[in-house]
Structure formats: C-alpha cells, structure tokens
Amino acid sequence: MIEIVDLVKTYGNKNVVDKVSVKIEKGKITSFIGPNGAGKSTLLSIISRLLKGDAGKVLIEGKGLEAWNTNELAKKLSILKQTNHISIRLTIRELVSFGRFPYSQGKLTKEDTLYIDEAIEYMKLVDIQDKYLHQLSGGQRQRAYIAMVLAQRTEYILLDEPLNNLDMKHAVEIMQLLRKLVDELGKTVILVLHDINFASCYSDYIVALSDGRIIKEGQVQEIIDCKVLKDIYDMDFRVEDIENNKICIYF
C-alpha cells in the first residue's frame, strides 16, 4: 500500500497540492482525475520522489519515502511521465533494456535479458523490437515505454497521462493492457487521466482533485455521478449505464 498523509507542495504562494491524504490499495488501478491545475501530476511526481513535498509524508509499504534507498525504490516503484522525448537514437529493445538498470547497472545478465524479452513479448513488440523510436507510431512508442517499465519489474507502476496524443484505437489498447497488468500480473497501477470515461471503464478506484485538494474519492459508482462530476469540473454531465459501464455525456 501507498499512504499519503497531509501532503503539501507549494509554488510561490499557491498550494498546488494542499493537505492531500489518500491510501492507494495494492493490486488495483487507481486513477487521479480532475481539471488542469488540480495537482494530479505534481502528486504523482512526489509519490515517485521526482519532486519533494513541502509538508506531509508518503509511506510505501509503511516506510517513509525519504528512508528508501534510491536503487531499492527503483525496484519497488516505476514512473512514466507524459514527456518521454529521448533525443538519442534508440531501438525499442535498447529502450526496454533501460528498465533493468536498477539491477544490472548497465551490465546486462542472462536474467536481465529474460525479463527484457518477456516485457517486449507482453507488449506485443517482438516483430518490431529492432525499430528505432522515431520510426514508431504514437501507440507503438507508448507501448515501448510501458515495456521498459515492465522490464523494471516494480510492484507499483505510475503513469502520467499515458493516453496523451494517442488516437482512440491506441488509447483503448493501452488501457486494456494496463488492466491486464493488474488482473494477470498483480501490479498496482496509478494513473493520471483526463478522459473520465476511460477512468470509469477501467479503474477500480478514482481520486478526484481540484485546486490541489481531494474533492471526493471512491469506487467508480461513487465518483461517476452527475452531482459529484459537476462539483469537480464545474459543468453539467449526464451519466448513462451502457453494458455495465457508467459513461459520461458532457458535450
């Protein structure tokens, strides 16, 4: 479990994360939703220790984030930010190999190679693993980055807007793959999502933020509700039940 207690992050005179407390259960997809500037990505960065909070604490398996050795934390938790622009010329396989760095320190073993192969196969990239990143479609590139995270073999996977700039087909593929990671491999996935219908259809738990604070958290049926959504986004919604999914209509 990841436990966040009274977390605060301030820029200038504004608390972009304002006394946030939440528990993230293992073996589930937890989605952070909310308008731009709600503090979702900042919160994810603090959990992964990319950013330092100004107050409060983050506990991973009951141990304070600051007490984790960097290398050990990299074996427990991985993060994929929305800006994944690598300027050097890399193939998919070379990129995925980076996921083994906490273990190999750059000197790949047979075990590392096995995990790289497994990640590439799981993300259905075997036939194109020798292609360079600049040759890939947006969906292929995103799958390659997720394969790198898989090769890292962490229990917790944090993804900041993983559907950014993807078309509908590739966005659905990514969400289906993330659902499989949880259901088949027992991973714990924490997402920042803008599309509330993807959050509704694929999440186990949703945390809704606005102005740095949690407005409401709970299971899908508690959050995907007209009144709750209006409180979060300050606009009107209609929610329809379609094939056991709650679908938001807001156009």
Folded structure, characterized:
It is a single chain. The chain is 35% helix and 28% strand. It has ten helices and twelve strands. The strands form three sheets. It has a six-stranded mixed sheet with strand order 6-7-8-3-9-10, sandwiched between helices. A hairpin with a 2-residue loop joins strand 9 and strand 10. Helix 5 packs antiparallel against helix 6. It is globular and about 55 Å long. The mean pLDDT is 93.
Main features:
28% strand; six-stranded mixed sheet; 251 residues; four-stranded antiparallel sheet; alpha/beta
Task: Offer a quick outline of the entry.
The protein has 251 residues and is an alpha/beta fold. The protein has helices at residues 40-47, 70-76, 92-97, 101-104, 110-122, 138-151, 168-185, 196-202, 220-223, 226-233; strands at residues 2-11, 14-24, 29-33, 55-60, 63-64, 77-80, 156-160, 188-192, 205-210, 213-218, 238-242, 245-249. The chain has ten helices and twelve strands.
